[in-house]
Amino acid sequence: MNTLLHYLFLLCFIILLPAVHSQCIKDQQQSLLHLKKSLQFDPPSWRTPLIISWNSSTDCCSWGGVTCTSNGHVVGLDLSFEGSFANFSTPRVLDLSSNNISGPIPGSFANFPNLRELDLSGNPISDPIPGFFANFSKLTSLSLSNCQLNGTFPKEIFQVPTLQTIDLSDNSKLGGSLPDFPENNGSLLSLILRGTNFSGSLPDSIGNLKILSWIDLSYCNFYGSIPSSFFSLPFLLELNLAHNQFSGELVFSNVSSDLSTLDLSFNHLDGQIPVSIFNFRGLESLQLSSNNFSGFPFNGPQQVKYLTNIDLSYNSLLSLYNGTDSSYSSFPEVISLNLAANKLRTIPYFLRNQSTLSSLSLSENHIQGKIPHWIWSSNQLDSLNLSCNSLATLEPHLYNSTVKTVDLHSNQLQGQIPTFLPFAKYLDYSRNNFRSIPSNIGDFLTNTLFFSLSSNNLHGLIPTSICNSQIQILDMSNNSLSGMIPQCLTAIRDISVLNLARNNLTGTISNVEVSENSSLEILEFATNRLGGQVPKSLAKCTKLKVLNMGNNNITDTFPCLLKSISTLRVLVVRSNNFYGGIECLNTNVTWPGLQIIDLAHNNFRGEIQGILWRTWQKMMVTEDGSLLTINGHYLRRIFNPFVPNDGYGLEEVSLGFGYDISTTVTNKGSEMNLVKILSIFTLIDFSCNNFSGPIPKEMGEFKSLRVLNLSKNAFTGEIPSSFGNMSTLECLDLSLNKLSGRNPITNSTIFSLNGIRTFVIFITRD
Ligand SMILES: *[C@@H]1O[C@H](CO)[C@@H](O)[C@H](O)[C@H]1NC(C)=O
Ligand SMILES: *[C@@H]1O[C@H](CO)[C@@H](O)[C@H](O)[C@H]1NC(C)=O
Ligand SMILES: *[C@@H]1O[C@H](CO)[C@@H](O)[C@H](O)[C@H]1NC(C)=O
Ligand SMILES: *[C@@H]1O[C@H](CO)[C@@H](O)[C@H](O)[C@H]1NC(C)=O
Ligand SMILES: *[C@@H]1O[C@H](CO)[C@@H](O)[C@H](O)[C@H]1NC(C)=O
Ligand SMILES: *[C@@H]1O[C@H](CO)[C@@H](O)[C@H](O)[C@H]1NC(C)=O
Ligand SMILES: *[C@@H]1O[C@H](CO)[C@@H](O)[C@H](O)[C@H]1NC(C)=O
Ligand SMILES: *[C@@H]1O[C@H](CO)[C@@H](O)[C@H](O)[C@H]1NC(C)=O
Ligand SMILES: *[C@@H]1O[C@H](CO)[C@@H](O)[C@H](O)[C@H]1NC(C)=O
Ligand SMILES: *[C@@H]1O[C@H](CO)[C@@H](O)[C@H](O)[C@H]1NC(C)=O
Ligand SMILES: *[C@@H]1O[C@H](CO)[C@@H](O)[C@H](O)[C@H]1NC(C)=O
Ligand SMILES: *[C@@H]1O[C@H](CO)[C@@H](O)[C@H](O)[C@H]1NC(C)=O
């Protein structure tokens, strides 16, 4: 009501007191209409742009996004999605960001020479940047990021004496080399060219831009050496030259004392890292990863008080200075130090004096010998990554360490799984040579969420004490563990991944229990010596995505109890003693996301009904389906069972057990990040059973199926012509059945062979 009254009042006001106050100046209305006309406007579908409301029959001060002074001067234009108003005496700020404006920057902009700020970012604007900006004598900020501009750097822009910010980032078609920077004290504060195609060597004249503070030239194509004039810009705060092709040695003469972030990562810089790098007294973050630096002979006192983060990973550092004791303290105390993927042979001794270190990575070096006890001692240390080295022993550690993330995978550690890390949330001991698990291990896992022991040499029973933990991901695969699977293991309350595959486990699995509301998403106990039946309690796993029971001795009928688990993506029961029909799948509500079903090498029999296929939508989508996520983590495809092969050879390809779902684990700070392997791979393997009757023509609807193996059954009749629709099929094996009809290889009416890389088909005629 209030609003309505207000509106009526306003209306009266305008009628009673026309013109002067609110009406905009004719010239300005014309300019704005001209601007509107010149913009090739195709508004985003999700909002109606304010500019649509502009027309000559209304007062331009009433137009959306236009701000006027009381005497009708247009002082601000804000047409952005969430822009801010500016408020000056003539049009000073023009924010047209994210309006889906296309075409070249219109010449009508030249009508706004008093603009202070122009923001056209996030529009698909094309063509080169026009020269008329040189006439914008008051321009302070030009933002053209994330457009589709092409051409070269608009060097006229340096004629603008007031320009402070130029942002041309994310315009991949802007290229050529940078012009010489003019000789003056300059006004330019930030130069943002990230994600463009500018190339060539950098002009030394950048030193002329005396007050430059932010430089982001990352993700461009610059090469040559980095001019030392860069580093002596007196007000430089942030310098980002990452992801270019800079080479040569780093040389600093006079260094800027304000520089806080220096990012030179992903270049080809080499030689030694000059120790004078610590003369940047304001330095907080030093990123030099992914270059070819060979040494870092730091010594003597240094003055970096604020440095918290050093990344030297992926270089060729052979050693870090390890001189006399007094020099150890000369390395600045930092919070995060990344030395991964270098050529270090020892754990640098100076680390002993690092009392503030919270995150340390030495993975992928050539470190041998023992892990010193002192490395665990700091109370600040939160995350330690020593993976992928040749470490053989753990020095005895008498006190518990407070480290929360520990990655020791891929070393040669032996003996018993250590127990001095009861605070760790993330423990990766995989790919070592550990031989035994202490039976009370559970007492030391009270905080652990991720625990991997996979690919060691572990013998003995699985300790039931593990069931007292709150583990979410437990991987003990690929060891020699024996005995029965403790019933309680699958019932750990929040467990989502349990992998016991490739061990020597025996006994029955019939009585394996899961909890109500089970969180289990991946359950693997393939390749053991397990017998019994599919546990009835698995029906409670309503989130199950992967169930792999292959290569055991399970004697049961098809596990129809799983049929209402709509999340199932992978079901593998191959090489067991399953028998009978698979009729329970003849419903249209089963497993819409199924990608892999492997029933091979069992005693299944009977006809396969067409209806079965209707529900497996995942196999029917034509595009590469979405990535499978588990616990919010992505499952990535690595497996490809096929040797690259462009011909259509008739060699038999062993499908084997290749899609083994092995885990790779990456550490990101203390955050757990499980990268599981698998994704758009789709497979149906029913081979080596006694299925009979015709192959259902509905199978041809599996447009995203990659592997279909129906060999060694008793299928009869012809190959359905609908098979020609399976456009992503890479491997088809129908051999050793009782099929009749034409050989599709020699008559391509049935099959489209386009895109099929490996094609295996044998048709046996009786
Ligand atoms: C942007 O405009 C193009 C045509 O110029 C149109 O196809 C596209 O859908 C528009 N984008 C949005 C987000 O509306
Ligand atoms: C201008 O806008 C007004 C109000 O939105 C509308 O009534 C009028 O038809 C428009 N005129 C033209 C020429 O589009
Ligand atoms: C514009 O300036 C006027 C006068 O200085 C002020 O009252 C008004 O709040 C300003 N508007 C905005 C949106 O900043
Ligand atoms: C700048 O303005 C002058 C005078 O208005 C004009 O002659 C010149 O062509 C303009 N320069 C550019 C690059 O548009
Ligand atoms: C810029 O792109 C337009 C098309 O978008 C093309 O016509 C023009 O030739 C290009 N100019 C340059 C300098 O690459
Ligand atoms: C640059 O600045 C210095 C002092 O800050 C001044 O002496 C000199 O005249 C300036 N030069 C120009 C070209 O503005
Ligand atoms: C420093 O490390 C190098 C390489 O590991 C080694 O050869 C040298 O003996 C060490 N020097 C001292 C003083 O420990
Ligand atoms: C280490 O932690 C375990 C399990 O929390 C505890 O039983 C033990 O007393 C601790 N040892 C020391 C030395 O603090
Ligand atoms: C598996 O266990 C049996 C005894 O139960 C033993 O003979 C065999 O060596 C074990 N296999 C492996 C690979 O540990
Ligand atoms: C497999 O299970 C069957 C029946 O449960 C049993 O007779 C047979 O001995 C088992 N085979 C092996 C190798 O354990
Ligand atoms: C399942 O199929 C039957 C018969 O084809 C049909 O009546 C029913 O609506 C289908 N249900 C669903 C959920 O699609
Ligand atoms: C496939 O075989 C059928 C029957 O022999 C014939 O009519 C058809 O033309 C053949 N197609 C091709 C592409 O050879």
UniProtKB/TrEMBL annotation:
Gene3D superfamilies assigned: Ribonuclease Inhibitor
A GO term from the CC aspect: plasma membrane
Example GO BP: detection of stimulus
Pfam family, one: LRRNT_2
Signal peptide (from-to): 1-22
Broad class of the protein's primary localization: membrane
Alphabetical list of InterPro entries matching this protein: Leu-rich_rpt (IPR001611), Leu-rich_rpt_typical-subtyp (IPR003591), LRR_dom_sf (IPR032675), LRR_N_plant-typ (IPR013210), RLP23-like (IPR046956)
Location within or outside the cell: Cell membrane
Ranges where the Leucine-rich repeat-containing N-terminal plant-type domain occurs: 26-69
Topology of the protein relative to the lipid bilayer: Single-pass type I membrane protein
Keywords carried by this UniProt record: Cell membrane, Glycoprotein, Leucine-rich repeat, Membrane, Receptor, Repeat, Signal, Transmembrane, Transmembrane helix
Family named by the database record: Belongs to the RLP family.
Protein name in UniProt: Receptor-like protein 12
